[in-house]
Automatic annotation (TrEMBL):
PANTHER family registered for this protein in UniProt: HEMK METHYLTRANSFERASE, MTRF1L RELEASE FACTOR GLUTAMINE METHYLTRANSFERASE
Residues binding substrate, per UniProt: 190-193
InterPro entries per record: DNA_methylase_N6_adenine_CS (IPR002052), HemK-like (IPR004556), N5-glutamine_MTase (IPR050320), PrmC_N (IPR040758), RF_methyltr_PrmC (IPR019874), SAM-dependent_MTases_sf (IPR029063), Small_mtfrase_dom (IPR007848)
One MF term in the entry's GO annotations: peptide chain release factor N(5)-glutamine methyltransferase activity
Binding site for S-adenosyl-L-methionine: 124-128, 147, 176, 190
Record bears the keyword Phosphoprotein: no
Family as reported in the entry's similarity comment: Belongs to the protein N5-glutamine methyltransferase family. PrmC subfamily.
Originating species: Rhizobium alvei
The protein's enzyme class: transferase
Protein encoded by which gene: prmC
Keywords: Methyltransferase, S-adenosyl-L-methionine, Transferase
NCBIfam families: hemK_fam (TIGR00536), RF_mod_PrmC (TIGR03534)
Reactions listed under catalytic activity: L-glutaminyl-[peptide chain release factor] + S-adenosyl-L-methionine = N(5)-methyl-L-glutaminyl-[peptide chain release factor] + S-adenosyl-L-homocysteine + H(+)
UniProt name for this protein: Release factor glutamine methyltransferase
Length: 288
């Protein structure tokens, strides 16, 4: 006889706890709810519903994958970001809540310009998370997502269409600015910023499941910022902004790189853990 939703939720929680998962109750809700298409309320209201044998098998397989180190949202193939449901694939970084701070910071700066037909360039777009989140709040804006991984661009285009933004979003396969043309009002990026030697020591969930292309920032983790600091101004319109996510210990180094290239520092933001996370710069005066 098959089990009820409630009984399966309990058994999944217990299995995850025994497997050493840090927050087994939360992850049980993510996995069971995600696989059954139920939010937290749905899990409660349908607590006594019986599952099909097929659903039980899918949940069992998901638990097995989780216990082998695969992150729950990778198993589901989906992650929520800034109110958008985003498809993941092996070529995309899994967007984290801290990156929403970059989106919020840019929107705060653009508070008086939200209805303007702004153009947004997202470098290393991955799932399209940052650009699509901005487009979802800027109704007249258009966005371009750039990535070197064709598979990531496939996911970004799919996510744009799924979230009703496909007509305002395009993609370019490019190594940073190599195939990018034109000027934009806003450039955003969550670039690879992990120092190469550190990658092997990252949590298993990150080092084994996030793409290396989205993690490896070179010997000191600053390779991408050097490119942005030297080349981005040529692709910004007068008055344009550039916003980047940074590693927790990179604030001073990244600021120095941009200021060396004439950029004007605008604002910084910390993440939910109190670490430096976002820097925003204005286009250099000599590029106006």
């Amino acid at each position: 006889m098959t089990k009820t939703v409630g009984a399966v939720l309990v058994s999944v929680r217990d299995a995850l706890r025994k497997g050493g998962i840090e927050d087994p109750a939360a992850e049980a809700r993510i996995l069971v709810g995600g696989l059954l298409g139920l939010d937290r309320t749905g899990l409660l209201t349908r607590d006594g519903d019986f599952l099909s044998e097929e659903d039980e098998e899918r949940i069992k397989a998901a638990v097995d994958r989780r216990l082998q180190g695969e992150p729950p949202h990778r198993i589901l193939g989906m992650r929520s970001f800034f109110g958008l449901d985003l498809t993941l694939n092996p070529h995309t970084l899994e967007p984290r809540p801290d990156t929403e701070i970059l989106v919020e910071t840019v929107l705060d700066i653009l508070a008086e310009r939200r209805k303007e037909p702004l153009s947004v360039l997202d470098l290393g777009t991955g799932t399209g998370a940052i650009c699509l989140a901005l487009l979802s709040t800027l109704p007249a804006a258009r966005g371009t997502g750039v990535d070197l991984a064709a598979g990531a661009l496939d996911a970004a285009r799919r996510n744009a269409v799924t979230n009703g933004l496909g007509d305002r979003f395009e993609t370019v396969e490019s190594n940073w600015f190599d195939h990018v043309s034109g000027r934009f009002d806003v450039i955003v990026s969550n670039p690879p910023y992990i120092a190469t030697a550190i990658i092997a020591s990252l949590d298993r969930e990150v080092r084994e499941h996030d793409p290396l292309l989205a993690l490896d920032g070179g010997p000191d983790g600053l390779d991408a910022y050097r490119i942005l600091a030297t080349d981005a101004a040529e692709h910004l319109a007068p008055g344009g902004l550039l916003a980047v996510e940074i590693g927790y210990d990179q604030n001073a180094a990244v600021k120095a790189l941009f200021e060396k290239n004439g950029w004007i520092f605008r604002v910084e933001r910390k993440d939910f853990g109190g670490n430096d996370r976002v820097l925003v710069f204005e286009r250099p005066m000599d590029k106006q």
